[in-house]
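Example with several molecule types.
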Amino acid sequence: MTERTSSSTVGIDAIALAAPRTYLDLVDLASARGVPSDKYTKGLGAIRMAIAGRHEDPVSLGTDAASRLFARGGIDPSRIGYVAVGTETGIDHSKPIASYVHGLLGLPPSCRVFDTKHACFGGTAALMGALEWIASGAARGRSALVVCADIARYALGSPGEPTQGAGAVALLVSERPRLLELEIGHTGTFARDVHDFWRPLSRRDALVDGHFSVSCYLDAVAGAFGAWRDEDVRRGGDPLARTAYHVPYVKMAKKADRHRAIACEGLDEAAAEARFAREVAPSLAFAAEVGNVYTGSLYMALAALLHAEAHVLEGARVGLFSYGSGCVAEFFAGRVAAGAAGFARELALDEPLRDRVRLDFDAYEAIRRADGDEPAGVTAGSAVDLPSDRCAFVGIDAAERRVYRRASPASAPRPEGSVARIAAA
Ligand code: HMG
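Resulting structure tokens for the full complex:
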């Protein structure tokens, strides 16, 4: 790669996902909880949620997403100079997940390596740092690896239970990106100290004030979008063709876009409904299959959008809304690069959502009840119930160190068909 010049663009060069091997169908959850299944499938817009097994954690999922990024994107790992993991699923008070990912992938020792945390906004914080690192010239032609990896867990039987999920998204951030050129320095931000959702150190499950969290999210849409739009009007920006939102559950993206349309832009109900179907619904297919992936949620929506529609979006402007409870939000935008459609096809973005195993309800509950029961006393030969092309958390050794099995290179079969497009929630 060459040194950055003032005419260079910076943005998302490649994307890859990772999802746990197993999922729970929301109809099975509804039936076990005695809830009408329409509440979950229509009321929340969820079809399935990914459930992380005993050997899957943010390190293994993040490593799988990043190794898929390198393989599918044809990326040379020696080009990486920055490795940041956005996560809110901590595994250690000190050692970052980014160090494990850096080590498991054998990335260069010259990298800057760290984690970022602010609820679901952690991935965006890492991405913004990467963009500014490149734009400042400090990258000296290198690229940044940004990984978002989380496991969303709420108490069994709680209202949050149908909005769980797990997964990781890896982003390569570079000059002259092949997917999305981001508008650096043009963002709208909004922050407020609230207790809408929190994860005390003593617990594995999140605590949430559910309906209040929805209203905090909507206030943040108005605040961040309003700030972005004021500046955009001043700059004379062209209209957004699509917008991807943070998706804690599919219906939330619809509520967000409706709030923006009616409260901020003066549209009526019918126009808001039509805009959602046209400009937001195409980004929601993966979230309906996986559930909330916290830090990766917005970028999974972007991946779904490019997977479904890059062929009609080259040259078009796409808005992105990131929300992290607590709370902070940022609205920003980018332009889909020329050639993105062909490259998105090569990335086979939906591939990790295929060939997953459906859990029955009892198996799901058994996994959740065993949460935190991590295998101790591991040895090199400890058994792992994941295919060998997956990175796996093996367990905790006698010195309380986490031990991982590195994935053997995947044969990366080409995908057939694609994940079903969901109907508007
Ligand atoms: P709830 O109170 O059980 O559900 O929990 P509800 O009664 O509000 O019903 C949900 C929807 O289903 C409603 O639609 C009902 O009308 C509908 P709405 O009025 O919202 O449009 N409904 C039905 N539809 C069809 N047929 C039926 C039926 N019955 C009801 N039979 C809640 C909902 C989202 C509060 C809960 O799941 C929860 O607490 N989830 C976790 C919190 C969350 O996801 N918050 C989102 C905003 S905060 C955020 O995004 C940050 C986060 O990602 C964390 C981070 O930043 O780190 C969470």
